[in-house]
Amino acid sequence: MPVLPACHHEPGRTADAVRRENALTLARNIVRAEKEKMRTLGRYEAVAPLGDLGPTPDGFELRLYTDGRSFVVSLKDRTDPCRFGIFSDQDGEIYQGSPGTVQLRPEPPPRDTPSVLWLSWESS
């Protein structure tokens, strides 16, 4: 049986933990910037008008969709065999996890940032 590469949540993946934390910081920055745009302009914006939010970590794919009244942002690690990803929308909660695992762990947010909820599910 082939040995599968380790996933983000497994011990010994320090470089991936740093990339994951950088992706989470980017997601928080996007949510914070979108909330500020809604407060000041009355609408959500695409990535470019949000300003400098920080770089997208290597291996992550950033997608941000908005119709002005709502937004959806996702960051997927295209290098992780467990398909780790981060997701948020206009509600401000940030979800992170991988499909095919069972784990639900709320993470307290830093001051003035959206909260994070670890969410993953078992696929059938």
Features:
124 residues; alpha+beta; 6-stranded mixed sheet; 1 helix; 6 strands; disordered N terminus; disordered C terminus
Strand order of the largest sheet: 1-2-3-4-6-5
Order of helices and strands: HEEEEEE
Please count the helical segments.
1
* Percent helix range: 10-25%
* Radius of gyration using CA atoms only: 15 Å
Q: Would you tell me the overall average pLDDT?
A: 79
Number of E strands: 6
What does this protein look like?
With 124 residues, the protein is an alpha+beta fold. The protein has one domain. Helices cover 23% and strands 27% of the residues. The protein is built from one helix and six strands; from the N terminus they run αββββββ. Strands 1-2-3-4-6-5 form a six-stranded mixed sheet, with helices on one face. Mean pLDDT is 79; it is low at 1-5 and 118-124.
Quick description:
The chain is α+β, with helices and mostly antiparallel strands and 124 residues long. It has one helix at residues 14-41; strands at 60-66, 71-77, 85-89, 94-97, 103-107, 116-120.
Write the layout of secondary structure elements.
Layout: H1 14-41, E1 60-66, E2 71-77, E3 85-89, E4 94-97, E5 103-107, E6 116-120
Parallel strand pairs: 4-6
Antiparallel strand pairs: 1-2, 2-3, 3-4, 5-6
